[in-house]
Design goal:
303 residues; Rossmann fold; 2 domains; seven-stranded mixed β-sheet; two-stranded antiparallel sheet; 13 strands
C-alpha cells in the first residue's frame, strides 16, 4: 500500500518516503512525468516543494505500478534503439530483444545497393518501421516503407511516432496480417519493379493455453496490461506465424522477380517448430539468431 500524505513536501522528502515502495529510478521517472522536469532538476532543487495534488497523483501511479502495471504504460512511452516511442494499452511495450532485428538488417544491407521496400506487419507502436527509416535515412535505394496492424488505435500511435522522426510519408494499412485486399494489391504493384521486399513481424507468439498460468506469476503478471490481440496465439503460439507464412507464399507467386526476406521475433522454444512450418512452404534458406541471453530469438528466411 502507498503512504498517503496530506501536505506538500520537498522533492527530497518524497524520494526518501516513496523509494521504500518503488525503485529509485522508477520513482524519479514518475516524478519527471508529473512535474514535467528533468532528473537534473531533482539534484539541483531537492528542497523544492511538491504540491499536495501532485503527491496524490504520484500515489495513484505508485499504486498502479505495485499492481504489476509496466512502468512504460504509466509513463506512456518507451525507449527503443535510442529513440523514445509513445505507447498505450493498444500497443505492446517495445522490448530490447526486438532491437536485434534492426541490427541484423543493418548488417545485411550495409553494402547492398539493390532496391528495397520495408514492410512491418503488426506494427504496434511503429517502433520497428520507424527505426528502420531512421537508420537507413541516407540510403537512396530504400524505395518505400509500409506498416500494417489489425488495430486502428495502434495504427494511430504508430503514425504519430513515425511523424515524430520523419518527414517521409508512411503507407499504413488496417489489416489482419496480409488479408486486406487493398494491401495485397498495393504490395504487388509496389514491388513489381523492386529487387527486394523485407518483411519484419513481431506477431502474437505466446501460447494462449499458458495465459492463466503466466498472469498469476509475479515475473509475468504485467502481461495482463498488454493488448491480448498482440500477445496470445493458438497452436503452441504459432498460429499467427503459420497464417502469415502461408500468405507470404501466396504473395511470392505474384512477385517472381522480387526476393522476399522475412524476419520474425519468436519464443526461443518455437525455433524448431517454426522452421518446420517454413520448410513446408519450400523456403530453403533459414537462419536463427540468438539474443544477448544466447536464446533463439529471431528467425530469418528468404527465397
Amino acid at each position: 500500500m502507498t503512504q498517503s500524505l496530506n501536505k506538500s513536501i520537498s522533492i527530497k522528502e518524497v524520494q526518501e518516503i516513496y523509494s521504500k515502495q518503488l525503485p529509485h529510478t522508477e520513482l524519479n521517472l514518475i516524478l519527471e512525468l508529473i512535474l514535467n522536469k528533468s532528473s537534473l532538476y531533482f539534484i539541483t532543487e531537492p528542497y523544492k516543494k511538491i504540491a499536495y495534488s501532485d503527491i496524490k497523483l504520484l500515489e495513484k501511479f505508485i499504486k498502479r505500478r505495485l499492481n504489476g502495471e509496466p512502468i512504460a504504460y504509466i509513463l506512456g512511452k518507451k525507449e527503443f534503439y535510442g529513440r523514445e516511442f509513445k505507447i498505450s494499452s493498444d500497443t505492446l511495450v517495445p522490448r530490447p530483444e526486438s532491437e536485434l532485428i534492426i541490427d541484423i538488417i543493418k548488417k545485411d544491407l550495409n553494402n547492398n545497393h539493390e532496391t528495397f521496400i520495408f514492410l512491418d506487419i503488426g506494427t504496434g507502436s511503429g517502433n520497428l518501421i520507424t527505426t528502420l527509416y531512421c537508420e537507413f535515412l541516407n540510403k537512396k535505394n530504400i524505395i518505400n516503407y509500409i506498416a500494417t496492424d489489425i488495430s486502428n488505435d495502434a495504427l494511430e500511435i504508430a503514425k504519430n511516432n513515425f511523424k515524430k522522426y520523419t518527414t517521409k510519408e508512411l503507407k499504413f494499412f488496417n489489416s489482419d496480417l496480409l488479408t486486406d485486399k487493398k494491401l495485397f494489391k498495393y504490395l504487388i504493384n509496389s514491388c513489381s519493379n523492386v529487387e527486394n521486399l523485407v518483411i519484419v513481424a513481431n506477431l502474437p507468439y505466446v501460447d494462449i493455453l499458458l495465459k492463466e498460468e503466466l498472469l498469476v506469476k509475479q515475473e509475468s503478471c504485467g502481461l495482463k496490461f498488454e493488448p491480448d490481440i498482440a500477445l496470445w496465439s493458438k497452436d503452441n503460439g504459432l498460429w499467427h506465424y503459420k497464417q502469415l507464412i502461408s500468405q507470404i507464399f501466396k504473395l511470392r507467386s505474384y512477385l517472381s522477380k522480387t526476393k522476399i526476406t522475412s524476419f520474425y521475433e519468436i519464443n526461443p522454444d518455437q525455433n524448431i517448430l517454426l522452421k518446420e512450418i517454413i520448410k513446408s512452404h519450400s523456403y530453403k534458406k533459414i537462419t536463427t539468431y540468438k539474443d544477448l541471453s544466447k536464446k533463439n530469438r529471431i528467425i530469418k528466411h528468404s527465397f
